[in-house]
Amino acid sequence: MKNRHEIVLAGSGGQGLIVCGMMLAEAAILEGKNVVQSQSYGIASRGGLSKAELIVDQEEIMFQQVQKPNIMLILTEEAMKAHAPNAADTDVLVFYDTTLLEAREGPNYIGFPFTLMGRELGHPGTANMVALGVMCQMTGVVTQESLEAVIRQRFHGPAAEMNLKALYHGVKLAQ
Length: 175
Known about the structure:
The chain is 42% helix and 22% strand. By secondary structure, the protein is of the alpha/beta class. Strands 2-3-1-4-5-6 form a 6-stranded mixed β-sheet. It is globular, with a radius of gyration of 15 Å. The chain starts with a strand and ends with a helix.
């Protein structure tokens, strides 16, 4: 597995990508990795372009901005268009939601109907957790166990169980 990952999670405000970015960072910290995480979102938090960026590395992180992502999770067509130059690089794994985006061709595009799966699990808002499960299982950025621990710290009761169920579904899809 690669030691350094530059990650972009992009979509629309309200899809939970900022929370996913924070949770991914927390999971990496639990594993003793160095992490830098930033976020940005459009003028309207719901519906505008939303993005979390992370660098996860075993070594010290000297420059704290993502320059050349090697992993992207894209949940809207607008976000895909905004990140098209990076997504076109075949060295970049691009996970995308086939429920909301047009089909993509190329060896680096990995599409799943994350939003549809979230709905089928009982809550469309869990699409981000399904996607996070797929992405982490296929890249090894963090372990499933670390993500589980973070979910249990962040959520309680039915919300924790719902998010864990979505994470497990994503992990199973990727296997």
